[in-house]
């Protein structure tokens, strides 16, 4: 790519034992309209953002049927199908969208089956490499929800199962029903509330996918100082820090702007010093 940094600089990560991806992915929530509702303001630009990511060796794309809803998955297929052989598309089900800004859990087995089959059709796939339960539904035992995904896996419609927005107890409950290869929780340099889940994933070799990976970067002085010293953005340093946190971390920054995608991917080649890592980590913990 004419000397430009690519996602390959982040190294590789194993997903479930038979899927490998570069350890800097793309989150496809932001290729929708405002409030993650409807079509993006500039559909062609969103398509170019997806294509730029893949051109820069991003081979893990995370989406969900609720993004749009359905818009993100549709645009991924429009932009990238037929897919490169090494492209891993992860999607999620378990949330419904009655309107803009509304996210309602629905973990009923019949809903998850419909959601998965809808995602397969929109993404033009026979099997989804990583299908994630988007959020536990307080009205449905998690064992029932994961049981539905286990059935879909047995039918060959899902290769691997992941969970999202879970506590350790919920993860353990899911794990008793089926093998769980990934956890996707909110985590960034400023919001460390899912630290225990990250530690668990690190210990058990489960992929940890932090959502909102580059929010609140302007609140960490040590991070801002590292960005100034290097002449890069604070968001790039935040991503570089996440990559140092654990080899099980797979950040998925997203954007509907091809240039922002390129900036995010360039973070894979930033090598923070041990002193910078320690200062950013301690500053975040002490907030």
| Series of secondary-structure elements, N-terminal to C-terminal | EEEHEHEEEHEHEHEHEHHHH
Q: Would you identify the CATH H-level superfamily?
A: NADP-dependent oxidoreductase domain
Q: How does the major sheet shape up?
A: 7 strands, parallel
Q: Which whole number gives the mean pLDDT?
A: 96
- Could you tell me the strand content as a percent range? 5-15%
Secondary-structure class: alpha/beta
CATH T-level fold name: TIM Barrel
Radius of gyration: 18 Å
Lateral strand order in the biggest sheet:
3-4-5-8-9-10-11
Through-space gap between termini: 40 Å
List the domain count as a whole number: 1
Structure commentary:
The chain has helices at residues 43-55, 71-80, 109-123, 142-154, 168-177, 195-204, 221-230, 234-245, 258-266, 274-285; strands at residues 12-15, 19-22, 26-27, 60-62, 88-93, 95-96, 104-105, 128-133, 158-164, 180-184, 207-208. The radius of gyration is 18 Å and the shape is globular. The chain has a single domain, classed as TIM Barrel, CATH 3.20.20.100. Helix content is 40%, strand content 15%. Helix 2 (71-80) links the parallel strand 4 (60-62) and strand 5 (88-93). Helix 1 (43-55) packs parallel to helix 9 (258-266), helix 3 (109-123) crosses helix 4 (142-154) and helix 7 packs antiparallel against helix 10.
């Amino acid at each position: 790519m004419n000397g430009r940094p690519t996602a390959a600089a982040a190294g590789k990560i194993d997903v479930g034992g038979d899927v490998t991806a570069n350890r800097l992915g793309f989150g496809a929530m932001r290729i929708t309209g405002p409030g993650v509702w409807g079509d993006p303001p500039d559909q062609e630009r969103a398509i170019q953002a997806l294509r730029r990511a893949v051109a820069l060796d991003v081979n893990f794309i995370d989406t969900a049927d609720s993004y749009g809803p359905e818009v993100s998955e549709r645009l991924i297929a429009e932009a990238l199908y037929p897919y490169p052989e090494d492209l891993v598309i992860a999607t999620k089900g378990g949330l419904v969208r009655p309107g803009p800004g509304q996210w309602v859990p629905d973990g009923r087995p019949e809903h998850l089956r419909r959601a998965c089959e809808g995602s397969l059709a929109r993404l033009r796939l026979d099997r989804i490499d990583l299908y994630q339960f988007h959020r536990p539904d307080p009205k449905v035992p998690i064992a029932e929800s994961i049981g539905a995904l286990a059935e879909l896996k047995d039918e060959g419609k899902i290769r691997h199962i992941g969970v999202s927005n879970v506590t350790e107890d919920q993860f353990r409950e899911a794990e008793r029903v089926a093998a769980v290869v990934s956890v996707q929780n909110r985590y960034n340099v400023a919001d460390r509330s899912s630290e225990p889940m990250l530690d668990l994933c690190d210990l058990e070799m489960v992929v940890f996918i932090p959502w909102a990976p580059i929010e609140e970067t302007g609140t960490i002085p040590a991070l801002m100082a590292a960005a100034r010293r290097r002449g890069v953005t604070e968001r790039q340093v935040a991503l570089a820090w996440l990559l140092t946190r654990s080899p099980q971390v797979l950040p998925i920054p997203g954007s509907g702007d091809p240039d922002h995608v390129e900036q995010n991917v360039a973070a894979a080649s930033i090598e923070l010093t041990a002193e910078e890592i320690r200062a950013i980590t301690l500053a975040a913990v002490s907030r």
